[in-house]
């Protein structure tokens, strides 16, 4: 078996330009920058663009460690795979949850070592498992027999994490029908892993993206504990609990992140107390990036419909839509966007519809909202556009992705450079194959 005696990792801080991030002038915020950019465009040259504020991610990271100090975040790259996001999180000491060999390569290319990566896709392509192993990524999830056989043939020294079923029925995106083993299946899989001589180091779950229900995590923590118990009886010594993603990315829709954390923490302390030797990690995606990106789209065309009662309905066609930055709406129409007009709020309001640029009728960003009257060329902005937006673009209709500008304010860059020592020092936890911040390290538990 592989030995992993590694020393503490000293994190290097490159300068923002090396990461493709624009360091804003002193006193300029990302909101100021957005307005400055808008003024740079002539009326007939306007195109949708995005401002990605890396400072927002820095603050999310501090909130995470404040609320869940024992839980090491492994950012889910699929949520937003921009280089600036990955490198900012790398500088902050986060780990990474990758779903494919391409994501693994993206993260490694930012100078992140393999010990900061969990391959968290329970159903993987054989070639992906092979390539991950070549790069030293050995910690990975699974939830079925077939995957165990595959891993035993391709990377028999992998450190496997059993993904169990855990569903929040109120989550925006549910994964329960696709991934996760039941308790009964888990028992069978553990027996099988024993026969194949595989190492099972822990349990993971994901309650679904956009969870509204902290109790779903509590239930899943209890179920994970049952699986740890089962595994112990079979002679496994599990060392890792991975509580997945699903945490809210903004504070205005359902319980806040801190409310989730307050409900989770006692359950973790009860079932996996300090001193139990179990390291706890999570795979937050939305939490980190949702509020960091703001999209400004332009109105390409305006149509006015007069209804029988003489009421006017405004139909606006924008230069970004459901096949672009709003792609998740194709899968979940429950997500409601709120366009914000730059016109004064004292102007008369009209019932309005915002459509995307493609030929598909479904390409409707919002079917009814109230806006002051707009004209072609006017800007509308959309907040909280960081999660599953820039990573899910399609090229349908030949439209290009909205240009994204990654920025950071001077104060936030300063905060990043002066992170407390125990957040910025990463320590290998040999039993898991992963490195985590000293503050979350099991030895500190
Ligand atoms: N981990 C896994 C395995 C996922 O599939 C996802 C989302 O699809 C995430 C983490 C990130 O979830 P969220 O963006 O809800 O935090």
From TrEMBL:
Recorded metabolic or biological pathway in which this protein acts: Amine and polyamine biosynthesis; putrescine biosynthesis via L-ornithine pathway; putrescine from L-ornithine: step 1/1
EC class name: lyase
A GO biological-process term: putrescine biosynthetic process from arginine, via ornithine
Enzyme Commission code: 4.1.1.17
UniProt KW Membrane keyword: no
Highest taxon of source: Eukaryota
Keywords, sorted A to Z: Lyase, Polyamine biosynthesis, Pyridoxal phosphate
Pfam families associated with the record: Orn_Arg_deC_N
Cofactor(s) demanded: pyridoxal 5'-phosphate
Domain called Orn/DAP/Arg decarboxylase 2 N-terminal: residue spans: 55-289
Transmembrane segments: none
A GO molecular function held by the record: ornithine decarboxylase activity
Catalytic activity: L-ornithine + H(+) = putrescine + CO2
Any one GO cellular component localisation term in the record: cytoplasm
Alphabetized InterPro entries for the sequence: Ala_racemase/Decarboxylase_C (IPR009006), De-COase2_CS (IPR022657), De-COase2_N (IPR022644), De-COase2_pyr-phos_BS (IPR022653), Orn/DAP/Arg_de-COase (IPR000183), Orn_de-COase (IPR002433), PLP-binding_barrel (IPR029066)
Subunit structure: Homodimer. Only the dimer is catalytically active, as the active sites are constructed of residues from both monomers.
Biological role: Catalyzes the first and rate-limiting step of polyamine biosynthesis that converts ornithine into putrescine, which is the precursor for the polyamines, spermidine and spermine. Polyamines are essential for cell proliferation and are implicated in cellular processes, ranging from DNA replication to apoptosis.
Family according to the record: Belongs to the Orn/Lys/Arg decarboxylase class-II family.
Name recorded for this polypeptide: ornithine decarboxylase
